[in-house]
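Protocol step 4 of 6: structure prediction from sequence.
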Amino acid sequence: MALYVKIPKDIDNIKEKMILNLTKRQVIFFGIGLALGFLVYWLTYKTVGAETAAILLFVCASPFFFTGMYERNGFTLEKILYHIIRTNICPKIRPYKTENMYRQIADKIQLDKEVKMLETGCKQKE
């Protein structure tokens, strides 16, 4: 019996797996989701009932599960949200401004002429 091992064509897509075939990022987000969900369940099951507390557990934990699992075109959800927020905060039109060195030289020459006129007391010929 022959064993075949599937080798990915692109080595950059290989991610190191930790626990239960999950990456470190996924394990962290799942842990946060489970901790928050069970905390909400433990704090609410006596007051609102077990069924409602279970629904609250799911509502509180599911965003972390989704964030941990979502990846599209090599971008994780937090990177995508960062880029969306950054593009909405930054100005849409970026004016192109240059420093005209010739204009600065011309202004300096004009200023030197005015200083020389004030020093000599002569009026400028127009």
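Step 5 (inspection) to follow. The CA atoms of residues 19 and 122 lie 88 Å apart.
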